[in-house]
Amino acid sequence: MARHIVLLRGINLPRHKRISMPELRAALEDAGFDEVRTYVQSGNVVLSSRAAPKTVAGKVERAIEEEFGLDVDVVVRTRDELADVVARDPFGKNASDPKRFQVTFLAGKPAKDVLAKLEAAAAGGEKLVASGRELYSWHPNGVGRSKLAALLAGPRLGVTATARNWTTVTTLLALADE
After folding, report:
1. Is the pLDDT reported for residue 23 higher than 90?
2. Could you read off the pLDDT of 67-119 as tens digits, one per residue?
């Protein structure tokens, strides 16, 4: 049975799409997933399933809709895909603060014109590297006021996307390996 990393987009923001992690684990177990674990409150799940990632995403979205009445976008990577994301780290030791180093996980590859707009928004030493279905971004002055980070979090990418900082990415890989 394969390990999958399930990333929920936009949950548990202040007063927005609130989901308790114990209730989410129970709903996913009821939906037929095994070894369901969550990490922090922002919608990070590691689970086991024989299904392909796209099938897992659809099944998780339906379980959340049925259990919580919420429409939540989901991006899924297998354990091996996440290991590849970590191995492709384009910044190495240069991204010294893992909370300022983010990976945006995409449901598909973004269009070239979208990438050009993102690259143009990078300012103040920010860096952006597109690699497959991930966008790696370094925000040396923080994410809060970054125009690039705001674009990465917004709906204009043309594909479903959700970002995680480097600490979360590497922790999820470790959880998948347990």
Report:
1. yes
2. 999 999 999 999 999 999 999 999 987 778 888 999 999 999 889 999 999 99
- On whether residue 76 sits in a domain, the answer given is yes
Interior angle at CA 111, CA 164 and CA 43, nearest 5: 20
125: left (phi over 0), alpha (psi -120 to 50) or beta: left
> The domain that contains 44 carries what CATH number?
3.30.70.1280
Which residues are paired to 106 by β-bridges? 161
Structural domains in the chain (count): 2
Burial of 138 (0-12, 13-18, 19+ CB in 10 A): buried
Amino acid at 95: A
Confidence (pLDDT) at 92: 84
Q: Which two tokens stand for residue 11?
A: 């949950």
Rounded CA separation 149/151 (Å): 5
